[in-house]
From TrEMBL:
Residues 33-60 form a coiled coil. This is DUF2959 domain-containing protein. It holds the Pfam family DUF2959. InterPro entries: DUF2959. Residues 1-19 form the signal peptide. Keywords: Coiled coil, Signal.
Amino acid sequence: MRYVLLILPLLLSVTACQSAYYSAMEKVGVHKRDILVDRVEEAQQSQQQAQQQFKSALEQFSSLIKFDGGDLQRMYETTDSEYQACSAAAEDVSKRINSIETVAEALFDEWQDELEQYSNAKLKQDSARKLANTRKQYTSLLKTMRRAEQSMQPVLASLKDNTLYLKHNLNAKAIGALQGEFNSVQKDINRLIADMNSAIAQSEQFVATLKQ
């Protein structure tokens, strides 16, 4: 209970800031629907960039297990750099999805409330139907995006483990030990890319619906 009392003012403050932001944007002709479109498109770009980054990490891992002499410390640093870049990319994807949720909830709440302002029953019914369809499509999209988000976690865990193992065992035996991990990481990354492609395709359909 004490935790709830402490966090409640913060949540109210964040909500108030968001409301103020939406109000300010509407005054210059940018509505919640427009913001939602922008954020979905930004999430698409973030997912595409994440795909490329994870592919790059896989290529580095492939080079690592083929290592046959040279600067092993430099190889470790490159591997660690790829992992850190993947972690940052995953964080950005999560941030983009969270921003979509925030504005979508505000848009749907506003739309639902404004249904009561109709005096024409036919128009009200049509708008309510469009709201239900849009919300259903959005719910499906969010589920797909979250699935793609979650599919990054096992890859990140594997990349981190491999990077740490290499750091703690900078020798040829370490390379040999990691060779057996490659196929598993490759499989997880392929699944990740497939999930993201599905999310990107659904995003395009959702944006098209919002722009109608």
